[in-house]
Amino acid sequence: MALGVGLGGFALVGRSRGGGVVRVGRVVRVSEGTLGALERASGKLASVAVASMEEQFAWFGRMPADQRASVLLIAQTGAAGFTSYLRDQGEAIRLTADAFRQAPRDLSRWISLRQTVELVRVAVQVIEREVPGLAADEEERRVLTEAVLRYGREVAFTSAMSYATAAETRGAWDARLEASVVDAIVRGDAEESLLSRAAALGWDLDAAATVLVGNSPSDDPPTVLYEVRSRAARANRSVLLGVQGSRLVVVLAGDTGVTGDVLRRMATSFGEGAVVVGPTVDSIADAHRSSADALSGLRAVVAWPSAPRPVRSTDLLPERALAGDPEAEWQLVDQIARPLEDAGGALLETVETFLEAGGVLETCARELYVHPNTVRYRLRKAAEVTGHNASVPRDALVLRIALAVGRLSRARGLW
Q1: In this protein, which residues make up the domain named PucR C-terminal helix-turn-helix (predicted)?
Q2: Which of 71, 178, 184, 398 is 20 to 30 A removed from 89 (C-alpha atoms)?
């Protein structure tokens, strides 16, 4: 009598010369005859399982033919693996895992994990119904029934692990793709490649985009990504983000609004220091402009220690111009110096005189030989034209730098 190892402790068995099962106490092993019958029935079991799936699940019948064939292949491998499971549990699960790995990669796009578990349940029900009938006696029937339940559990865990592995792989790929999109925005790469990669990530190509830059709150990128995504989800916004050394770059979808509440909430995702917000652009295709302005502001914000958090790059035009940003110089000329000059000499002269007088209304009025109310009126008109009130200290600085930049640009023949 030879000894062997079988399923779940049903081991330490022997076989007689006639090939029957020899019982040692209460421990049994399925006979070779039954195992052979199971092997021959594996194809039928798989076909019956797939037919039952089509009958129970309408979505299964709507799947493409090649995807259904993949499910059939997995079912056949699983049914055949049941016999191997009775001989060697580890080998059978390895074969089942291989079947999942060999299936087309896009199978998981057609079948969710929940649907896969439903299919496994149906297959196990078919095996549970059909297999016991192949047993040689009542003892074998009991062993096979328990084996089916154990095997179904193992297959379910294997399928779940396959989906988890696929999700991790897809998540890692998406993270690399997202980082490449953010890098492309920062570098100002070609629009076509940027759009295709952003679309692959599910980004709405028609959505407005705003770039925020600042210090990363942690040296652990996964932690940073989780925190930013959580805040964006609570604000019901889509984001793309990249950690570039100690710098965090966030591309926020949608309008940022006049109040900037969503910007303040997103700013809490950054580390200590300034957070600069670029201008909101019409789509991600123009996001490089928002990124360039935000990064320029981040380099120059050190010149304004009391800057709010977050601060818009347009509020940092004087500091950016002093740092040598030609875009900021052009915006100061286009938005302030040129409109003041076009509005008439009186407004420009009044603003310049008021600034030179240190913001003292009466002194300015005496210099211009006009009534103080005339100065007030002209300053209000200048504020309407430029968006900056010369009586406010910060606005006065912006106006002074803008006028200086305008004079320098005109001297260089740029205006």
Answers
A1: 347-404
A2: 71
Q: Sign (positive/negative) of CA torsion 222, 225, 229, 230?
A: positive
In angstroms, the first-to-last Cα distance of the chain is 105
Packing angle of the helix pair 191-200, 138-187 (nearest 10 deg): 150
Both structure tokens of 351 = 């603003």
Q: CA-to-CA distance for 36 and 18, rounded, in angstroms?
A: 16
Distance from C-alpha of 85 to C-alpha of 77, rounded to nearest angstrom: 12
Asked if 252 and 262 touch (Cβ cutoff 8 Å), the reply is yes
Judged by phi (left if over 0) then psi (alpha if -120 to 50, else beta), residue 202 lies in left
**Where do the domains of the chain lie, and which CATH numbers do they carry?**
7-168 (1.10.490), 194-316 (3.30.70.2730), 326-411 (1.10.10.2840)
- What does the pLDDT look like over 187-237, one tens digit per residue? 887 667 788 888 878 888 889 999 999 999 888 877 888 888 888 888 888
